[in-house]
Amino acid sequence: MSGGGGYGEQQKTSWPELVGSPGHYAHDMIHKDRPDVQIPVLVVGTKVPPGFDDKRVRLFVHQDYNLKVALTPVVG
């Protein structure tokens, strides 16, 4: 999976390398790879409605650890 979006390229759909990174940095990196998605930042444990959205990446952060990314961000 690569960033970009040229002909024949797959769009990136997960960012495991961002786990443990500051939330603002992760947000910027996801936006750089996928400017077409919404990126809500949520504290771990926040209840979210079920359902898949191919234009969303939920970014879950630890409230007690300086808002570092807690879970692998994925499209959905």
TrEMBL record:
Alphabetical list of SUPFAM superfamilies matching this protein: CI-2 family of serine protease inhibitors
One Pfam family, short name: potato_inhibit
Gene Ontology biological process terms from the UniProt entry: response to wounding
GO MF annotation list: serine-type endopeptidase inhibitor activity
Keyword Phosphoprotein carried by entry: no
InterPro entries registered for this protein in UniProt: Prot_inh_pot1 (IPR000864), Prot_inh_pot1_sf (IPR036354)
The entry's keywords: Protease inhibitor, Serine protease inhibitor
Region (Disordered): 1-29
Top-level taxon of origin: Eukaryota
Protein family membership: Belongs to the protease inhibitor I13 (potato type I serine protease inhibitor) family.
Protein name: Uncharacterized protein
Organism: Panicum virgatum
